[in-house]
Description:
Blueprint: H1 11-28, H2 33-50, H3 61-73, H4 89-109, H5 139-152, H6 168-181, H7 185-190, E1 196-199, E2 202-208, E3 214-218, H8 221-234, H9 254-265, H10 278-291, H11 296-303, H12 321-327
Antiparallel strand pairs: 1-2, 2-3
Helix pairs in contact: 1-2, 2-3, 2-4, 5-6, 6-8, 6-9, 6-10
Amino acid sequence: MRPAELNRLTVAEAGDRYVELVRAKTLTGALSTATAEVYARDVATLMDLAGAGTVLDDLTGEDVDAILLAFARKPDGRRAEPSQGLQSASSQARFRRSISALFKHATLAGWVQINPMAMATVTAKERGGLRAERRALTREQAQGLIGAARELGRQVPEQAGRRDQRTELRDGLIVLLLSTLGPRVSELVRANVEDFYTNDGVRYWRIFGKGGRTRDVPLPRDVAEALEAYLAEGRPQTVDKALLLSWRGRRLARGDVQAVIDRVQRQVDPDRRRSVTPHGLRHTTATHLLADAVDMDAVRRVLGHSDLSTLGRYRDELPGELEVAMRTHPLLRAPKTPTPRRAEPDNPTG
């Protein structure tokens, strides 16, 4: 129920109160720290674009449209090319979700009479604009990358340089985990050795995901073997509990993971090579599991989503996929011929 009296807060006042509430949710596990900081950054951008002293309730749908367009035109500091400096479709959609959440809370808290998002007309570009590196690899590209990752673990130590500076086993494991399980890069670098355990002969990874949620995912046999090889021969001896370490013995950072993928990609045949980000490998996992008719709920649990509908954002189209589906249509397959039952031998004592 909406409060009886309107509290005419400025954009800055409302933003500060909302960010304080969002950050408090990290204490209960309702939000991860990284997600809370994304909200905080987007709210700070809203203050800048709307004007910190503007009264929140004075913003109209037209004002929100102007803010969304101004954000879309903002240079993206992460991109080196000036021609590609505008905000990506995914960044625009994220910003819209952030300010929508703020206005939804503002409506319930009595900071606005009417939610102006309901009157906004500007929409984010569809996800077809997703950069190629963030989209799923084809089967051939993925198999080429995975094959290169496997080969890294077979290199002769003398050929690979000093043992204390070898990262081949680690790099191969990183690519295998990203390609087959599709974890978020934050989940990967947060992983500790103790998060991997064995139950009934199967190796599991207890992944600590967004919002304090955990999920236990079984490792494919090849990935489990790569993990064992890395723990036995590739991981530096240190008291640090982190799974993935630099050769200096420090926990790997998020930014290091892309360099690892690029290094492994250089070992792939050029005809099967394509640049890809860690998020693109998450798309690769989802796309190929779903294309292989793996149960959708199982894929949801592997990726760590709370809602099946979220899978649609990770499912990319594959070339030739429809042709394969029609060629192997389940209703047109020849029925299996039943195996004839063997006659029972006569009972000589009967």
